[in-house]
Amino acid sequence: MRRPSPLPPPAEQRPEEAAAAPDPATVQPPRQVAPPRRRPSPDAPSPVSADPAADDVSASAAPEPAPDAATDVVPAPPVPGADTATAGASGSAATDLSADEAETAPLAPVIPFHLRDDHPGGMTTVADAGPVTRPAPGAGDATAPPVDAEPEVPREEVGVRDVLRAARARRRALRAEARRFTARQRHRRFAWLGAVAAVVLLVLGTLGVAYSPLFAVETIRVEGTQRLDAAAVEEALSGQLGTPMPLVDSSEVKAALVGFPLVETYALEARPPHELVVRVVERTPIGVLSSAAGFTLVDAAGVALSTTSAPPPGEPVLDVRGGVGSAAFEAVGHVVRSLPAGIRTQVTAVSATTPNDVTLTLGATGTQVVWGGPDKSAMKALALETIMKTRPPETVAAYDVSSPDAIVLR
Q1: Cβ–Cβ under 8 Å, residues 129 and 110
Q2: To the nearest 10°, the Cα dihedral for 38, 39, 43, 45?
Q3: What's the CA angle centered on 55, arms 54 and 60, to 5 degrees?
Q4: In the structure, what pLDDT confidence band is assigned to residue 235 with cuts at 50, 70 and 90?
Q5: Comparing C-alpha atoms, which of 272, 320, 280, 314 is closest to residue 300?
Q6: What are phi and psi of 279, to 5 degrees?
Q7: pLDDT(350) > 90
Q8: Can you tell me whether residue 123 is helix, strand or coil?
Q9: What is the pTM of this model?
């Protein structure tokens, strides 16, 4: 819109014009009728002014204050050459429009104006605010998107393969996270499994080698024999040759040693890779019992070790009332086994009628040793050995050690 030129100052009127012109005091200014405003459609874009300053001016000029009672507001006369739209908007031309024409006619631009004291007419227009236009009829049917609306992004079609690929990727990610969080537990489990596997392999390997012919018995050796023939014992155990050491049958070894009465106890010792040692504890004989069959060598338990026609040398003859199953025989066995070796070889006979009257006979002199019961046998043996050093049997008829604290010599 062109900026209107300032109104020129009024010139001197001619006489005929002055006579024909009406008195300004009696002439009422024409009433301005604004054209009817049509409510814009909701879909139509709102008019936006290109000049922000014009919007501010229009906004400030929209509610025009009522004229003061002391001030006469006279509209400015039309300026020749001014914008036709402005002239059409004021005056009585707007009142000549019919209702239908006003409804369909385009809305004329509204030029806001302000009162100015320095202008001869008292008013001036603000033309730099720009025209205020109203959308044309049917503008609400436009299909153009709003200015601030986001463009629609076309959606891609998702297929079954894409879904399966995403599911596989998700499973792989979950497995990776599970492996990361359980790494220490897996390492600990692998360490335990490795240790257990190593132990199992070691045990299986050892058992496999031990039960193989690599550890078979090739040599049998008997230890601890004095009266027993070791060669005879080895011959009796020859059935174990060639047997792996863990498979040696102890019951077969026991059955073979039962034929040797002198064997009281035994123990088997495996010495890899091929030697089997048999440790034997022989029975200790306490004397011989005289019978019609001859002289039978017995131990403290009454086990017959051997029978000969003549008494074996170095073994005393036993005279016990009640036989090998009596309490007197048990007391005799306990006393003989507690004697020191130096005194044991000098004893030639032992007699007992009860468990508390055990009597020993020493050597060719026939010196008696009254022993009494089997209690305190160790103290009695020590006292007898001590007194025999000061008083030998040749000088004494009897030693009474039944009370080891007071030895009686006769």
Answers
A1: no
A2: 70
A3: 100
A4: very high
A5: 320
A6: -95, 125
A7: yes
A8: strand
A9: 0.48
